[in-house]
């Protein structure tokens, strides 16, 4: 694993701690994000994600996953940075959940470079996993109000390039997760 600067193109695979991840990453580089289709209907965030060109996937329909994989491939060929959170949901920052591999097909079958990132948050006056990360039973507006009550939130994002030779997307998912765990813990 070689640490690197913020990528500006190709595929970036990241852990997911909540909606702040997108805001933090977007502040570092323009990107195309991939999100579950339910995000479209979320208050405020849904509107912003639709305006920003997010690719939405209906995870319940296999044919839709294939179409989104084609859209990911097209964005990569245009030279975009495509950000994928393969955990499929957000967590409390203590671990990295297992990766769902279905949206990694373009990465597994192409020659596009891959990068990984590990997102982490910290606060002086509480527990970032419970108060900053958006997961579990949090509701958006109460979480956002609580977040605004914090004096400061520190976001740390570490990036690394990832070497992959073409192959199975499930094996790729395991290796990407392992690299993100190394970044997170190292």
What does it look like?
With 186 residues, the chain is α/β, with parallel strands linked by helices. The protein has one domain: Glycerol-3-phosphate (1)-acyltransferase (3-Layer(aba) Sandwich). It has 7 helices and 7 strands; from the N terminus they run ββαβαβαβαβααβα. Strands 1-7-6-2-5-3-4 form a 7-stranded mixed β-sheet, with helices on both faces. The model has no long low-confidence stretch (mean pLDDT 86).
Structure keywords:
alpha/beta; Glycerol-3-phosphate (1)-acyltransferase; single chain; seven-stranded mixed sheet; 186 residues
Short structural summary:
The chain has 186 residues and is of the alpha/beta class. The protein is 37% helix and 20% strand.
Q: How many structural domains in the coordinates?
A: 1
Which fold does the CATH topology refer to? Glycerol-3-phosphate (1)-acyltransferase
Query: In the CATH hierarchy, what is the class?
Result: Alpha Beta
**Radius of gyration over C-alpha positions, nearest whole angstrom:** 16 Å
Q: Main beta sheet, described? A: 7 strands, mixed
């Amino acid at each position: 694993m070689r640490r690197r600067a913020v990528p500006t193109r190709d595929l970036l695979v990241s852990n997911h701690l909540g909606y702040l991840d997108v805001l933090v990453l977007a502040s570092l580089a323009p990107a195309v994000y991939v999100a579950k289709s339910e995000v479209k209907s979320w208050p405020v965030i849904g509107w912003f994600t639709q305006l920003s060109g997010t690719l939405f996937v209906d995870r319940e329909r296999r044919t839709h996953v294939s179409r989104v994989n084609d859209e990911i491939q097209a964005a990569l060929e245009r030279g975009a940075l495509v950000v994928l959170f393969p955990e499929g949901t957000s967590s409390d920052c203590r671990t990295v959940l297992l990766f769902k591999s279905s949206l990694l097909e373009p990465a597994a079958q192409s020659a596009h470079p891959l990068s990984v990132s590990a997102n982490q948050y910290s606060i002086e006056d509480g527990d970032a996993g419970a108060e900053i990360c958006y997961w579990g039973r949090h509701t958006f507006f109460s979480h956002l109000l609580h977040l605004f009550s914090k004096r400061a939130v520190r976001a740390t994002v570490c990036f690394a390039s990832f070497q992959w030779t073409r192959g199975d997307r499930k094996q790729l998912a395991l290796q990407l997760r392992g690299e993100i765990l190394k970044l997170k813990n190292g």
